[in-house]
Amino acid sequence: MTPLDDIHDPADLKRLPRSELPRVADELRAEIVRVCSRAGGHLASSLGAVELTVALHWLFDSARDRFVWDVGHQTYGHKILTGRRDAMPTIRTPGGLAGFTTSSESVHDALTVGHASTSVAAAFGMALARDARGQDHRVIAVIGDGALTGGMALAALNQIGHVKPKMTVVLNDNEMSISENVGALNHTMRQLQVKPWVQDAEARSKRTLEGVYAPLAELGSRAKSAARRFFDPASDNPFHAMGLRYVGPVDGHDVHALAYYLEHIDRLDGPTMLHVVTRKGKGLEVAEADPITWHGASAFDPDRPVHVGKGYAWSDAFGDAAIQLADADDRVWVLTPAMREGSGLVAYSKRHPDRYLDVGIAEDVAVTTAAGMALQGLKPIVAIYSTFLQRGFDQVVHDVSIENLDVTFAIDRAGLVGGDGATHQGVYDLAFLRALPNLSVAMPRDARQMRAMLREAQRLGGPKAVRWPRGSVDVAPEAPVDAWDAIEWGRAEVLKEGSELWLLGLGPTVGYALEAAGDDPRVGVVDARFVKPLDAALITRLARSGARLVTVEDHALPGGFGSAVAELLADRGLAVPLTRLGIADRIVPHGDPKAQHEELGYGPRALARRVRELLDGTEPSGADRTNVGVGASRSGVATHAATSGADDRTPN
Ligand code: HTL
Ligand code: MG
Fold it and tell me: Domain for residue 307, yes or no?
């Protein structure tokens, strides 16, 4: 029987004596490794936050106090301690626990989250609401050093330091984002860490042990001077300069020290930042040695942990294409908002370190920096996930589209993304990009087409977006840029002729359409390739033939590819039967994308059924058939069965 076996609720933890906390932490760490070895997941971040998690839950009450975890990917320990231990093996799998904190999953999850840098503003709002409503609960944001590079986090701190509500911001500083953290503040945090307090780790933890609960005045003189440094309001401290009380740095793996300082801070008024130094991957040798690889793990053998590679992905195809584009033209730059690995840019960053820029978790900065570069004659490529481009939308409108600048957006993870779930689905970019003047949007169906589109985007200039899904792709045969396929911008491709019904696919749904069409001579298949500009001539010709049109997209229906086709038909007065398949107006939770495509009605099998119904006239007329029976239950958990492939479950 371990201490953890007796913890079914945080109240059980609170009953344990302080001396038991290190044992709980060790057991919690082992449990996280066990869970991730079977289910995969955000292993390294969760391991680094174990002591912090134990200290917070031992002291405070997450059902009432608000723990606001940034990103929510470091919360496996939090989930285990808050009654979800038995469900942990299902994490990130269809119908199982979400990978991030999710308010509908537990009263202990204050916020549904997945994108970085939101915790501080959300916690600020909660603190203001508490005060406005005369409540007295605690509000504690926990933000990583990576997430702190986001403008929203910094802007929120700036407000907190001005308004000064009582709240604690724990800065969990492990010197890592997914890759090495970047930015000037990152260097400043290193300097803060060099304080003697941190250098003298062993003596410190002994001292802290002796000093826990003792009021500061009762501490020995050495501890007192250390404590003075600790609460040092030095004006060169950036957080103090923003109006927060700064405490730290504290060894984030010393659970007694954490409990001591958290409790002490709790007695103070106003906002306090507690700077906690942790090690990403703490306690699992391979993860400590290589926290980048182990940021997100697939299932592994806990006795011999080896990271399983993913094969050749769309991101790799992009990275290879980017290298060649930059080889061929020294005006090419690639910018990433903290997603070097996920965007396939490791090799590029080594090959062209002087034309590579990681701006931190700051998508807005990536887009507007690219705009500045383009204004001055460079040809920047912004490599960005669809879901994170949402953070840079205004910048795309205001700084790129209006100026009609030569910025190429290389949009990864377009479509449903699997285990990361609702917060990370890349299913809105067509809708928000399609509205923008000057900007056009393409989606390839294979790696050759992808690189052809990227080259053409750069050659034509202007704002151009090329988007592709998560997952594996064929390897395009190596060829110099000049020998890449030609592609006519805005031209769709007829892949199969048909007489009665045309399936118009985009990216991955082109393959679905071909599969569903089989060799039925009545069913034609078009690879649309461009959502903007649409191939109006081709679509008009198909519409005039009297055949039914069916658009198929892995994207939200409102504003998506099908909407673009519907607008074209309406604008040209073409009254033709049109069926739009895609994601209706709903949130899609984590799951296996291929299974979800079927349930949403546009996977190959569902599509084949639908085509038969449409051709046979058995389609129920007038009924809204979009996405029947699919989607999230109130808990945000998928209702469908598990058929997931490991690849889609690997976290970002
Ligand atoms: N951009 C935005 C707006 N949100 C997210 N979540 C990402 C990108 C991708 N992302 C993560 S976790 C992470 C990034 C960049 C690194 C966070 O570093 P931090 O925490 O220092 O805050 P650490 O991992 O414990 O060191 C996910 O999508 C999960
Ligand atoms: Mg970090």
Answer: no
